[in-house]
Specification:
With 130 residues, the protein is mainly α. Helices cover 59% and strands 0% of the residues. It starts with 20 loop residues before the first helix and ends with a helix.
Length: 130
């Protein structure tokens, strides 16, 4: 038996309460493939939206338009749609449906740690800016 200040957390019936390590690691693992939709959204917000393309300009040479960005925008949008849907399915499966199958677990802890999903992308973004 452990001391009163031990590392195990138990409820009044002596059962072990689940911690936050498993949900945190699972959501960080989801965050690795989530780099693709997060980068697609980042690219669309930083490159495509601020572009000054005027499709109906009388003279295209004066519109200051980056046609390279316009060419890649449909590919990035479709990549975001497909990988974003897959990411949402993964979050739904791991953070909502998974804990509901176990009697001693609730989705609240798992959904709270879902904020860790963008951590790998943000880390790579910070490394790329440095």
């Amino acid at each position: 038996m452990e001391a009163a200040g031990g590392s195990r957390s138990e409820d009044e019936r002596g059962r072990r309460r689940p911690g936050l390590v498993a949900p945190a690691l699972a959501n960080l693992a989801i965050g690795l493939p989530a780099i693709i939709p997060l980068y697609s959204a980042y690219w669309l917000l930083t490159n495509y939206l601020p572009s000054t393309c005027d499709a109906f300009a009388p003279r295209p040479d004066t519109s200051n338009c980056d046609y390279h960005t316009l060419d890649h925008a449909p590919v990035m949008m479709s990549l975001l749609a497909v990988t974003g849907a897959i990411l949402l399915l993964a979050v739904l499966t791991v953070d909502v449906l998974g804990p509901r199958r176990r009697a001693d677990d609730r989705p609240g802890r798992w959904l709270a740690t879902a904020a860790l999903i963008p951590v790998p992308f943000l880390l790579l973004l910070c490394l790329a800016k440095a």
